[in-house]
């Protein structure tokens, strides 16, 4: 009985001693981390509105993830190879779960979300304080009480999101550098591109899941668990709407905790792929060799750090690749962080619809590109030098195609007194806003409150009062305003809640944008695997873990942290109308100058990416004459080493004799 249990236990342990099993567990970890990351990106808009933040502050929250990575990236990448890498990955997954849980805490610690409106939730047909009334005292004006203002602005509940994101970044640090170096150490060199492609596919699938989860949460009102939502006067298409962002983070916390479990069962080292289960003693010899090598490495942890850093800094290909990555990562972070906001403002879609579109139409091409990239690298055994040319040509094609996005634009929302006159004529957005007109000066309206209504003339107004409406019918989101003096139409002058739709022409532009962006994502992902192999193959085996970690460190500190902050600050400059807190201070932006937004959204990334092609040309010219480590550490060298071990084993078996009892005599005989 004991022998049977021992055999089962041994078989279970051996199950965790294969590269492919580790690849499966690492794919699960990549899925969980990317699920969390994509959900965080998809919920940035909801978090911005929940806490009334500026876009630049949201950029700080986005950059806090990179701050967490910077705290531990170098020690994890370097010392992680000397310690137990699978266990460190498992601990990292647990940290990600803890970070997600902390991010969700503000929902349970703060009160209900109160959006900006002139209509009281308890309004009925007899209450008309939000309509046009002559000789009315401005009792609706926001209070200037400094205590109230401090309570709103200085509550700083968003700090929980910031801290949770930092902890999430600390946890994610260990996954890719240690996971990839672990696979590179114990997988066949021709299999590693395919394995990395599989990891990227897992990441892409999880992005689809994350955006789908974000779309689901964005459709649910944030306080759906604590009250009746029938009295709401906003819909998911409204820029004041806040979805239930906290639900997704609780889901992500559970997934991260679950994916951490398998890593605690993997051994510190694995037998080299292709040498296991061959029964000729080669596996034991290789394992012994790895153990001896690990002991020597543990004895010189500190001593080797600075020489390895010096080797990497003196590697021109590595440094040029680092510069290219920093420039292009600025582009990537800037666009990914704010693409939901751009699509919402440009095409007039709700956050839920935007996230659904991104998940369904844009992520599958990325998955296909990663798969084809890995298969092509494996099938044709493409060297790093050829991979560099392939990545450059594909990236340049992607860049040229991105320039066509400038043509997929729509007009701004037509809002009287803001983007158009009260006669419906669109005027330049740089002129002073005139929200009052002859038709509403008698109404004693608030001029800074955002509670838009859409008139039956196709023009929107900042509030029912500014539209000159004197009567309302119904309640909640079905409320209809009548007798509106500012709405000039052939029929009854009426309005409904919300902005007016942009129309079928804008829907067609959205289709063109989706097609172009999908092709771009396919080309981008197809070029990623060859490009990443240039990074891995330009370093020596002992430099890979530290090199990948240093690469991550530089991209985070020079792109991951500053890019969302300065890009968000530039987007804030395109705001046309800010939301207003109860104390009168400005909150999240409600509507943007869409032309300025488009020029920023595509222009700055185009400039950054374009500047990256100059060092890319130098890198290609340098690789013609530069001798890479893979040119000396070829599979033939590894095969010759394996044959030498086998030959030594055979030689030992043939000459082994009872008369040679000591090691000295055996060596003399050999």
From TrEMBL:
Keyword DNA-binding recorded: no
Annotated InterPro entries: Kazal_dom, Kazal_dom_sf, MFS_dom, MFS_trans_sf, OATP
Every Major facilitator superfamily (MFS) profile domain range: 21-624
Main location: membrane
Keywords, alphabetical: Cell membrane, Disulfide bond, Glycoprotein, Ion transport, Membrane, Transmembrane, Transmembrane helix, Transport
Protein name as it appears in the record: Solute carrier organic anion transporter family member
Molecular function per GO: bile acid transmembrane transporter activity; organic anion transmembrane transporter activity; sodium-independent organic anion transmembrane transporter activity; transmembrane transporter activity
Gene3D superfamilies (alphabetical): MFS general substrate transporter like domains
Domain called Kazal-like: residue spans: 433-488
